[in-house]
Amino acid sequence: MRRTATMAALALCAALCADEGPSAMPFLFGIDEKVASMVTNGASAFSLQLQPDVRSAYLSRGKVIEDRPVASILARGSLDLGDWGSPGVQSWDLSSLGNRRTDVHRRAFNETDLGVFWHYNYSFDEDWRLSSEVVKYWVMLPGYTAPYRERKTCATINEWRVLQSLENPYVTPFYLLRRGFHPNDWLYVRAGLQRRFPLGGGFALTPQWYAENGNEWHFERRYGPRRGGGKYHSGMQASNFILELSWKATKNLSFFVSAHQFDIVSADARRSVKAHSSPCMRRDLTVGTIGCRIKF
User: Which residue of 36, 133, 199, 295 shows the fewest CB atoms closer than 10 Å?
Assistant: First the structure.
């Protein structure tokens, strides 16, 4: 039993280290070919993605949460099941790099988001495919101080997300739908377009534009009560334009920088934000980001 486990571990290491094709190493140790094939294929079916980055500000669902630098890291793992799609898990952690909001939350790891997802690609032909994903998400705020954490609006946010994009050689339309149902009920929809332009030498330029939209409950969650009373109108909240320059250094590693122009376009939302006393309530902001993407 011990010898079999040792041989299986060596087979797995060989499969992970191979650059192309299945490794012949398992058969040199007399491991059954079927077992070795299962180990090799299982290892290649699993993928891991990491994206650490630093941003000059933190935007969330049509609102500037923090107008000073923050650091975040996204970790995402999935298992390719072929025609059944790819189930997986992901986490996103946020930390502040300044003292702008120390009265509200600690600096390190003040927000942690966890998700369980299922991803599926449907190919029309070689260059066209519909990418779809459904996510059950929990947005947690462990770093917030007790008075804020006890408030209803700062409790763990439970939500569902649906993402789709029509990938093609021309312009890729996409949307993200988020529905919060606890502790508050709201609907948020992001819809936009993007295209990637290869520049040669591993460089690429990707412009992206999207509109942020929400129902009246979402507006109130983001901007507070409507100025003058009454209710917000469901519709477009903000316009976002992002220009990203990326460089693929190796097969598994790329770097990127981006500029993001954020503008609230709803007149009611702009009035509410202008009247708010918080220093982070901004109606317009340019955000810079630098980071890397690692894939295994």
Answer: 199
Residue 196 lies in a domain: yes
Residue of 165, 263, 251 whose CA lies nearest to 206: 165
Q: What is the CATH number of the domain that holds 139?
A: 2.40.160.40
94: CB partners within 8 A, 6+ apart: 58, 70, 71, 72, 109, 110, 111, 112
Q: 216-223 and 267-275 are packed helices; what angle lies between their axes, rounded to 10 degrees?
A: 20
User: Quick check: 237 and 269 in contact, CB under 8 A?
Assistant: yes
| Residue for token pair 């009035």 | 271
DSSP state of 72: E
Please say whether the beta carbons of 172 and 195 come within 8 A: yes
Direct distance between the N- and C-terminal alpha carbons of the chain, in angstroms, rounded to an integer: 30
**Do the domain assignments include residue 248?**
yes
pLDDT at position 43: 52
Q: For residue 33, tell me if it sits in a domain.
A: no
Q: Say which DSSP state 154 is in.
A: G
Decide: 41 and 23 in contact? Cβ < 8 Å: no
Helices and strands of the chain, counted as H and E runs: 6, 15
Q: What is the pLDDT of residues 8-26, one digit of tens each?
A: 444 444 433 434 443 433 3
The residue segments making up the domain with residue 169 are 49-295
3-state secondary structure of 81: coil
pTM score above 0.70: yes
**Is 101 buried (19+), middle (13-18) or exposed (0-12) by CB count in 10 A?**
buried
